[in-house]
Amino acid sequence: MKVFLSTDMEGTAGIVDWAQCVGEGPEAAAGRRLLLAEVNAAIDGAVAGGATEIVVNDSHGAMRNLPAAELGAQASYISGNPKPLYMMQGLDDSFDACLFIAYHGSVGAPAGMSHTYNPRAVVEVRLDGTVTGEAGINALVAAHYGVPVVLVTGDRCACEETAAVIPDVHQAVVKEHVSRLAAHSLHPDRACALIRARARAAVAAAAAVSPPVLEPGVLEVFVRTADIAEAASWVRGVDRTGPRLLRIHGPDRLATYRSFCAAILLTRAVAEAV
Ligand SMILES: [Zn+2]
Prior knowledge:
32% helix, seven-stranded mixed beta sheet, globular, 274 residues, five-stranded antiparallel beta sheet, single chain, binds zinc ion
């Protein structure tokens, strides 16, 4: 049984500030140890639930946050940047379940370090009319390949936003929002125990779970400036429907996701410049 694990970082218990999850400082190194423990807890749980092969896709920042030799259960590791399928690189229709680990709430939501892909560009994303974060957007790829998304871990907002578009997803809430740069976290040992238990239950039940529906899978993206919207509109599949509003709908849900990622990459320079 093959399990795909996409790991972000801001949703890790004990991590509340960018110094803990960006760059090479001592706090970032400590943050990566906290993340490694949560990823390994998810791997342990997945194996206990029946996983025989696990692919970890590092989806945060420079996307090389984990020491490969310390990943559990001989999980293989996709790391580095850029990757064509970004947070979902490596997923295809050979997988039986998909896990989202250490995810965070969407930009604008009451959640720690809230953002949706690029905080300098994206103000809000709706998926078929529902406000969503990275989990909902990434689930388009799982829907395309027919893989059920069975677990999300992270802050409460990330879990609730995921459940809004994937109602039967298992959840492990490891911290509660206090402010954008403050949170009340479980002790890391308890967070890992919770993640392990939920991963086991989620993977054990995966065979009976359907892939996300997400039909028609239209993304509406409200961006911060008109310049960002203009640049994004150069991407195939992206229509500019207002001064700062984009509608993204490709021929299938994978194409929609790829158009979204292309718009994020293309607008990065414009977003930094203004
Ligand atoms: Zn993220």
